[in-house]
Amino acid sequence: MEDLKKTQAIYPYLEKPIEIYERPCGHKIIFAYKSGSLINISSWVKTGAVNENDHNNGVSHFLEHLMFKGTSKHKAGYFDKTLESKGGIVNAATWKDYTYYYVTIPKGLDGKNFDITLELHADMMLDPIIPDNEIGLPFDINDTNITTKRERHVVIEEIKMRKDKPWTRIYNNTNENMYSKHPYKRDVIGNEQIISSITRQEVLDYYKEFYTPNNITTIIVGDMNSKDIIPKVIKAFDFKGRTNKENPVFESEKPLSQTKYVEDYSKINTGFLMFGYLCCSAKDTKTSIIFEVISMILGLGQSSRLYQNLIEKSESHIFNVISTEFSAMRDMSNFFIQANYKPEEKETAISLIQKEIEDLCKNGITEKELMKAKKKLKADFAENAETVSDIADTIGFYMTACNNLRYIEEYLNILNEITTDEVKKTANEYLTINKAVISTLMPLEYKN
Amino acid sequence: MEKYTLNNNIEVIIKENINTPRTAIVIYVKLNKQEQKAGINFLMSELLLQGTSSRNAEELANELDENAIDIIIEKKSDYIRLKLLCLNEDVEHGLEILSDIILNSTFNNYKKEIIKIKGEFEADLDSPKAQTQDEYYRTIFKNHQYGIGRKEIIENIDSITKEDLINAYNDFKYILKKNISFAGNIPAEQIKKLFEKYFEELKQKETEDTRIIVAALKENRISLIQKEDANQAQIFQGWNIPNIYSKDYPAIILLNTLLGASGLSSRLYLELREKKGLAYNIRSTFEANLLGGHFFIYIATEPKNIQTALNGLKIEIKKITEEYISDEELENAKSSTIGKRQFYKETNLLEANLNGIYEYLNLGYKFEDELINKIAALTKEDILKTASKYFTKPSALCILAPQKALSDAKLL
Questions:
Q1: ipTM
Q2: Cys-Cys crosslink for A61: which of A94, A144, B299, B389, Cβ 3.0 to 4.6 Å?
Q3: Which of residues 286-305 of B touch A (CB under 8 A)?
Q4: What is the pLDDT of residues A297-311, one digit of tens each?
Q5: Which CATH code of 3.40.50.150, 3.30.830.10, 3.40.50.2300, 3.55.30.10 fits the domain covering B221-408?
Q6: What digits encode the pLDDT tens for the residues A238-286?
Q7: Which residues of A touch B68 (CB under 8 A)?
């Protein structure tokens, strides 16, 4: 067997340490033991919208769809039919830093489903042929007479679906305005013009550039023995000398120095509002966990400040929904406050959220609030150890965004050591109002 | 798995699962009265987390979050379900709060809760899919309480009084049939003692279900929503099916797998998405409600494709009602359906939920094994017979799209 570099990491609430194997080609294999009848096999690729440009925006996601369209060995549909007929769930997802493909399936008697799942998953990852008849010919998006509709049209339907979702629309408006140059500013799904016209060769070129051994982490989770499965994974993932390339590196952007306001209108009845902030890199483990604490205290759950102060205790009932979200990313993470409100009260809604942010920066948080956040985040980690797919997703995300599993291993210790002063300092560093993009989506009748 | 009965005759299912850090407890409360005002039981359920005689709403929210105890209360068509989820070390604390909520809720904040609910629903209804789904339920369950959606609740909720809520709450506490299901890493004897301690005051009585049975559709019903800026048409089409006690239930599960529930290899997915590129989202699902169920298909497609999508659905429905499925398709659908049922027990919450729902339905916690055996024994004749029994009957169709697209599809 080839020379493997083996390390281990502790994943809280799992019975055994996670095993991490790095192959000479750079491909990483991770095994996490989890008792139960289901297994998960996934491969995480370190590419997504971050590696796109204005001409091929959406190619990562389009490729993700096309990876299911057959290989030299198996025609389109064989993978889905074979694994789904054994009770498996197969799918994939694309985001800015990553694209991943997974199968969660009953392991079957004596683990018999593992071998076939691994064989088909590795085959799909290494040998997608993307046939012309599946991708469909490029076409003019304004031509309404197209009758032969293939995968391009499926993705265009997905783009249309996202346009009709108010929360997605306001997220895109906010996101686009949070960056000046960084590729995170693009929407992962791309647009109809690009998806209708991109060629098969452009998609294949993108695959060849980024689906390299050092960019792929394969994760196996389930009630299995690593001594049995690791040699099988190595054998299945034969990269046949595929060469690695350095991934592009992008300069991090600084948060805004002046608040930016963005307005949009739609045929809706309520108002949607989003505050967006740039934060630290996901690799900055401690600051990332502090942001999770801030998010928990400010806007997650019925006891959070925003919910209590702006919904429960409010006499004016301006807000219908309010919450926060910390989204960890490789180069710069995001912190969002999202709300739905009565449209006639837009200015008041913005100023009430501003006041809450100002209060957080000026007065920080209480010890009691910090204790609450710590307890809830600890319980969230226990939840993330309950299913084979959640375990795989957590491992995959940190291997892709941070390149290691230190975050998982050190999470509970770092969390325990966080102080109220550190939370206040981080809030002041990143969340003052001048650093926010404030985006609204209003009913059409409020235009002008 | 162990089943036993508390002193107040409430049945409990206990499933010990070692090496699981979080405990799950699920309580089913069976609804059996016709609602006099739309949304009473929904509002009562929402208010259970808004204060008790010893904890106001804020204190309750703080205490739950400070201890990472999740209590989720859901009002469904036939029951109210209470879920408790917490780290093992907090289970007694969680049960004490759950018991307080069930026994001592005050409903003092009901006017504020009404305002909150109306706001949340108005926000939901800005989603074209949510708006269409609401309309679909209204269409297939016309004049029945299953058809009450967000819109009716927004319109009627102000008429609900505190007295209405207290009456519903007294039924909930003392009359309606209940059962408890536990899954977690706590010894059975310990959890039994906790249940005796915290749930001894709960009561239930044998009462008839006085709710009205769903009237089956006698003719096709179509309901249209015009939305001029919609990028996609939202389409729901559904048929009446029987409840879970029907002998056809296993075949309906399999039909759902075949048509649109089995991920990337179902018929609708393959024919309408993969071959025709008509949609990103297409799926089928069903609810075998006690008073009458429904099986429905959802597709979102570019507005100009409405007629093509409807024709495609029609062809697939016709095919499954007139032609035998192949032996291979039958075997694949069976193994897919049976295999996927393992996902229903992957966590303590899922397992407690599954065991609890069968007990609440008087099917017994062994029903899951019996159901799997029945699915395994289905023949292609059973599938054809069941499909033609339900899918050749009238359907309810609801579509949201711009006016021109509805006109072009000859729907206006």
A1: 0.94
A2: A94
A3: 300-302, 304
A4: 999 999 999 999 999
A5: 3.30.830.10
A6: 999 999 999 999 998 999 999 999 999 999 999 999 999 999 999 999 9
A7: 375-376, 378-379
